[in-house]
Amino acid sequence: MDSVAKLLFYGITGIIVYVYAGYPLVLAIVGIFKRRGRPRGETRLPSVALIISAHNEDRIIREKIENSLKLDYPKNLLKIIVASDGSVDQTNNIVRDYEGYNITLKAFDKREGKSATLNKAILGVEEDIVVFSDANAFYREDALLKLVRHFADEEVGCAVGKLIYLDSESYVGRGESLYWRYEGLLNRLESRMKSVLVATGTIFAIRRSLFRPVIRDVANDFQTPAEVASQGYGVVYDGEAVAYERSSYFFTEEFNRKRRIIVRGLTGFNHLKGDFGGAFRICQFISRKLLRWWIGALLPVLYAANIFLLDNPVFYTFFLLQNAFYIFAIVGAVLRRGRVRSRIFFIPFYFVMVNAAALSAILTYMTGGRLSSWEKAETTRDMDENYLETPVLRVIEGNKKALESLARAI
């Protein structure tokens, strides 16, 4: 029994170490030999269609439109489209107020989910570049210029921007900020090889000619980069193309969001594995996503295996460390709405929460569950003073220098 326990212990520990440290190291080594140059500025700016996905967004859509109209991009080359997926609130009426300001509303009566909405919204679009965004994501003024400069390289088919959270008051917000710093590192390393695995759904651009219809149960920020790569084009990341978004405030919102992303990711890979952009990208998916998603299921096995090895001082010490980590996670769960903001609590709490969501997602997927419509986290749209002291646009404009410093620091 000890030999089986040791095999499980070392195997699972090895997977965890590889996922969080080994894979970035592999990318860094490979990237030494495939480093790409800095993007050149476009001599001729391409025409751009900015497609904003929306479903019942009347609390935030006006500020999103105002933000989009202030983007530093030639107005004659920019078309802004709001794709409304069966909205029944005031979203469509608010958008219609702006139809004389280069804003086009594509309103669909029946709610079919984000993928189906994008497939219909892109019909008739003739612009060279299509940028995908969400109603609750606010762009820095130069975001489009930063994204499109990469298309001066004819080998690039998709450019991915960077997401920064405006606030980190909750444990969820702080955990998400840490998570996106790590994701940003992976994106930078993968970008050296023009092989960024997934896009940031709130800010990414593709050549319109490369778009393929999005599968109903698959996220467009997962499917589209894979299909761009499968057509022989590169996928790159630009940390200077910045979008700002509020993090979700409540544990249940973030848990459900993570669960949904993973279910759709598993569904997407099952559909696309034969057309994923080559063997290297499949290895990327396994290393960056699949193995990480399975950690939630492996952690209880690691804990159980450790119990059978307590007669060894090394394993006994590791067992004590595991218990301390989970105790800190529990304390973090209890304090998550309080004023205590110590990393010693919020990191274990967020780690356990994310892996619990991953385990839930795997069980959902294996039992046949599929998720086609998106359920927005309400607190990421809430402009109430209890969550955000000033409107998002005022935060972006009035504190631009501070935000730019934050972006450079991250």
Short description:
The chain is built from 13 helices and eight strands. It has 410 residues and is an alpha/beta fold.
Q: What is this structure's SSE topology?
A:
Layout: H1 2-33, E1 48-54, H2 61-69, E2 78-85, H3 91-96, E3 103-108, H4 114-121, E4 129-134, E5 138-139, H5 143-148, E6 156-165, H6 171-191, E7 204-207, H7 220-230, E8 234-245, H8 251-272, H9 279-307, H10 313-335, H11 343-366, H12 392-398, H13 400-409
Parallel strand pairs: 1-2, 1-4, 2-3, 6-8
Antiparallel strand pairs: 4-7, 5-8, 6-7
Helix pairs in contact: 1-6, 1-9, 6-11, 7-8, 8-11, 9-11, 10-11
What does it look like?
The protein has 410 residues and is of the alpha/beta class. The protein is 51% helix and 13% strand. It contains 13 helices and 8 strands. Strands 3-2-1-4-7-6-8-5 form an 8-stranded mixed sheet. The protein is globular, with a radius of gyration of 22 Å. The N and C termini lie far apart (46 Å).
Strand order of the largest sheet: 3-2-1-4-7-6-8-5
What's the helix-strand series? HEHEHEHEEHEHEHEHHHHHH
DSSP strand tally = 8
Give the biggest sheet.
Answer: 8 strands, mixed
Poorly predicted regions are 383-410
Q: What class, by secondary structure content?
A: alpha/beta
Mean pLDDT: 86
- Continuous helix count: 13
| Strand proportion | 5-15%
Instruction: For the record, give the distance between the C-alpha atoms at the N and C termini, rounded to a whole number.
Output: 46 Å
Can you tag this structure with a few keywords?
410 residues, alpha/beta, eight-stranded mixed beta sheet, 8 strands
